[in-house]
Amino acid sequence: MTYRVEKAKINDAAQIHRLINHFADKGEMLARPLSEIYENIRDYFVVRQNEQVMACAALHINWEDLAEIKSLVVSEESQKHGLGDKLIAACLKEAERLGIATVFCLTYRPAFFEKCGFSLVDRSELPHKVWGECYRCPQFPNCDEVALVCHLEVKV
To answer: Does a structural domain hold residue 123?
Structure first.
């Protein structure tokens, strides 16, 4: 089956919320309130099968030269089909299109992001403003997520 990555629609928000929080309940990612997903729906990419959201990821712009890939999740039954790779590629393509030179992520699965062209960095190398959500995390202040960056060749 061929899977296509699309920009999320407002009707996807509740499914995105359930998918993210399913994995957050298992301690694998940060939970997101439904209101935040609605507010940031334009950041999200999804993969659907019929009308069912099977996977999602968001590209959140932090500054003129910095964006974050966040909330990358693939439903258990849809894993091992390359959907995560496709979502990362869509986020990086969007960042390039926008002229954003650096994309970062915070993750418990650094090997996956390294396979997609990201490199490990010390979290202290990221600007302080990227830590705005940290106070909501159950791991705060003892964060054990790993920071990675991907530098893009953008034309200005």
So the answer is: yes
